[in-house]
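Working notes for the structural subgroup meeting. M.R. asked for a predicted model of this chain before we commit to crystallization trials. I am recording the input and output together here so anyone reviewing the notebook later can reproduce the run.

Input as submitted:
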Amino acid sequence: MMGRGITWRHKQFAFHRPSAVTISQTIADAPNNAFQILLFCIIVYFMGGFVYTAGAFFSFYIIVLSTYFALAGFFRLLGTLCANYDQASRLASVIITLMITYSGYLIPVGGIALILHSNHDLTDLSSRTDLFAKEMVVLDQLH
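Returned structure, recorded in token form:
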């Protein structure tokens, strides 16, 4: 976040695109994030009492890792679109609040007003990553 002003100046001078910086930061952060998620998965998996097989554990790890990269990509996209940290954090907080509120967790789908039902459709698309991850973990544990 500290180099954001420099990145936007480079964009103005056509040195490089902010998306190139975001992609390079994602690739550079991937090994460290994968290791941290591995430690997290070891703790959560065995404390949760899931099935003690290597295949089930590594399926769980891949699911959590892919969900992390999907959400990290979403937040990095918001960071790339905004010129400074204040705009990015405000935009992310509004979008996450709308995603949680209208995805069917807080307000049931039948209780959403018709005028706001398009918000449910949009947030349903963005929250499918979370729903698919939960479904994959449950299927992995039951089979």
